[in-house]
Amino acid sequence: MEKRMTNPKSEGYISAKDMAGRAAYYKVLQAAKNGELTRIKRGVYATDDHLASQMLDVEKVVPGGVLCLYSAWSHYQLTTQVPQEYCLAIKRGRKITLPDYPPITLYHWSDTAFNLGITNTEIEGFKVRIYDVEKCVCDAVKYRNKIGIDVCTEIIKEYLKRRDRNVSKLMKYASQLRVAKTLGTYLQMEL
Predict the structure, then answer these.
(1) Fewest C-beta atoms under 10 Å: which of 16, 30, 163, 186?
(2) What whole-number distance in Å separates Cα of residue 50 and Cα of residue 191?
(3) Domain assignments of the chain as residue spans, ordered by start
């Protein structure tokens, strides 16, 4: 594939907005047909060597998405569970067309749950939005019946072992997410 076809700012991705005119679009379609590019979703293509990376630029695939639940717990090393797919939170009511690859599960959250605790970090060279560790613990308590009590307990135990824990921030988030009483019970059992 020609070097000039990829935009240096796109970091291995080519999107429809990067293409100038029909000729460039035709070249991208030909490259995808020849196997030089992989179609991620409509209007977004990636080079194959870029896809070899474990982490993908989730902002390109799901604009405005935030890594959550298993993906975030794994990043913070709060659980031994290995995520089989990317878990991304989006605002309730948004419609997103997901690509075949990578496997992504979307969680549609209310404004309060979505906006609370978003931070920016870099994972494997990609800038991603992810929830901070306290929000991740609150999410574990909130979804304890879906993920399992054992996973929830493991996440709380691992959080309490961290030197950078902030229990007052954790309880503030818990009250905003309406899980303070349940989290308090778990903390009493662990302390």
Answers:
(1) 163
(2) 45
(3) 3-51, 58-190
Q: Which amino acid is at 146?
A: K
Strand order in the sheet with 104-109: 104-109, 86-91, 66-67, 126-131, 118-123
Bridge partners (DSSP) listed for residue 87? 105
C-alpha distances out from residue 40 to 71, 130, 131, Å: 20, 21, 25
Mean pLDDT, range 98-120, rounded to an integer: 91
Average pLDDT, the chain: 84
| Strand ranges, E, within the chain | 13-15, 37-41, 44-47, 66-67, 86-91, 104-109, 118-123, 126-131
Predicted model pTM: 0.73
CA angle 88, 84, 65 (to 5 degrees): 10
pLDDT at 145: 96
6-51 per-position pLDDT tens digit: 443 455 667 777 777 777 777 877 877 777 777 766 777 777 555 4
What SS3 state is found at 136? helix
The predicted pLDDT at position 67 comes to 95
Distances (CA, A) of 103 to 62, 83, 99, 149, 172: 12, 10, 8, 25, 33
